[in-house]
Amino acid sequence: MKRRPRAPAARVPGRAALPGDREEAAPESLAGRMHEGARVATAVADLVVFVVDARAGMTPADRHFAQWLRRQGRPVLLVANKAEGRSARSSVLDAFELGLGEPVVVSAEHGEGISELMAEIADRLPEAETVEEEDSDRPLKLAIVGRPNAGKSTLLNRLLGEERMLTGPEPGLTRDAVATLLADPDGPIELVDTAGLRRKARIEAQLEKLSVGAAIGALKLAEVVVLVVDATEGLHDQDLQIGQLIEREGRACVLALSKWDAVADRQATRRAIADRLEMSLTQMRGIEVVTLSALTGAGMQRLLPAVRRAHAVWNTRLPTAAVNRWFEQALERHPPPLVSGRRLKLRYVTQAKARPPTFIAFGTRAERLPEDYQRYLINGLRETFDLPGTPIRLQLRGTRNPYTDA
Ligand SMILES: Nc1nc2c(ncn2[C@@H]2O[C@H](COP(=O)(O)OP(=O)(O)OP(=O)(O)O)[C@@H](O)[C@H]2O)c(=O)[nH]1
Ligand SMILES: [Mg+2]
């Protein structure tokens, strides 16, 4: 999904050119062409940002143009710039007289008030319409990973309806990552079977040393990963490590509890695994768990729908205004803590990208936001916007002016 390109907020030229001043500027002159530019930009803009100079004070030209803008019937945001220092205070009050509402006070040069300005702009812009980014012919990339002998190849064969992959009780049967195209009525899927991930040591530390580089490679290239766990064995540390790897790589994930036909106490097994997941894979809270038997076919019909749901969540794009409405409430309910005795001011949040959903929060000293508060925000995003089972990224920008410090 991607944002529909929309008309940018019109930047209104300064005093040199004023629509309505036609008699003073011939159309072919620079001033005349600027008139035209401002008129057209105002007509197509979702929002007009009208910038006045708070240091110089309101001029007749400002009043004239404000009057003209009020007649255009477009949303206008008044910005009083160069407002650092005392001398600007009284002009800020004057700016109210323009009849365009309360001015947002900034100093573009000193980077003050910029995040507030961004929040104000976001509040006034219409919510972005979204369009399909991908054509539906492109296959969904799905990797099947898990420990050796978990039942990955049997699962893939069952999805394909044929004995494509060699299976058997010997662990380590699949040696390479093998891709196959599945023509599913809901859209093609590129399935990649992988070698069992057998390393006992922590995957994070030992990544290079893994003998299963191809499996890791497939995982990194996948959009969705099905983590196959042998339900007769329960959830091992290694399963959780693979889960962490999936989270770290930012892939969508579905947990398949395989060999369900051979599980004696299903209720206890399901609960034990759910509890362990809740405790250990907090970064992917809400992950879908599908119990199935690749041997008998039971539960198999639930797997691909779960995969498509995970894919959709992973692709989510949220409208900026809605995210900021939530953000404001979240900050109110539970204000950010003091850091070294100073209040940490968060101002504005925006979704930078999807796949996985990635947000940037701006604010004074935002980069020092403690981890538990970051988790609070991530959990809030997950619950409020219904983003289960997908990694959510939150980046923090402590800069006062995100434009000058990209
Ligand atoms: N009871 C039962 N056995 C299963 C099921 N799925 C797989 N198995 C058995 O588990 C063993 C391993 O299956 P594979 O599909 O080869 O496992 P794998 O994960 O591909 O293993 P590697 O490629 O070695 O990593 C085989 O003996 C399968 O018959 C199932 O749903 N139920
Ligand atoms: Mg295999």
**Relative strand content:** 15-25%
CATH topology of the largest domain, which one?
Rossmann fold
CATH top level class name of the largest domain: Alpha Beta
Radius of gyration: 28 Å
Break the fold down into its secondary structure elements and pairings.
Elements: E1 2-3, E2 10-11, H1 30-44, E3 48-53, H2 60-72, E4 76-81, H3 89-96, E5 104-105, H4 114-124, E6 130-131, E7 140-146, H5 152-160, E8 178-182, E9 189-193, H6 203-206, H7 213-221, E10 224-230, H8 237-248, E11 252-258, H9 266-280, E12 288-291, H10 303-314, H11 320-333, E13 338-339, E14 342-343, E15 345-353, E16 358-364, H12 371-384, E17 393-397
Parallel strand pairs: 2-3, 3-4, 4-5, 7-9, 7-10, 10-11, 11-12, 16-17
Antiparallel strand pairs: 1-6, 8-9, 13-14, 15-16
Helix pairs in contact: 4-11, 11-12
Provide an overview of this structure:
- This protein has helices at 30-44, 60-72, 89-96, 114-124, 152-160, 203-206, 213-221, 237-248, 266-280, 303-314, 320-333, 371-384; strands spanning 2-3, 10-11, 48-53, 76-81, 104-105, 130-131, 140-146, 178-182, 189-193, 224-230, 252-258, 288-291, 338-339, 342-343, 345-353, 358-364, 393-397.
- It has 406 residues and is of the alpha/beta class.
- It folds into three domains: 2-112, Rossmann fold (3-Layer(aba) Sandwich), CATH 3.40.50.300; 140-314, Rossmann fold (3-Layer(aba) Sandwich); 320-397, 2-Layer Sandwich (GMP Synthetase, Chain A, domain 3).
- α11 (320-333) packs across α12 (371-384).
- The strands form five sheets. A six-stranded mixed beta sheet has the order 8-9-7-10-11-12, sandwiched between helices.
- It starts with a strand and ends in a 9-residue tail after the last strand.
- The protein is built from twelve helices and 17 strands.
- Residues 152-153, 165, 173-174 line the site of magnesium ion.
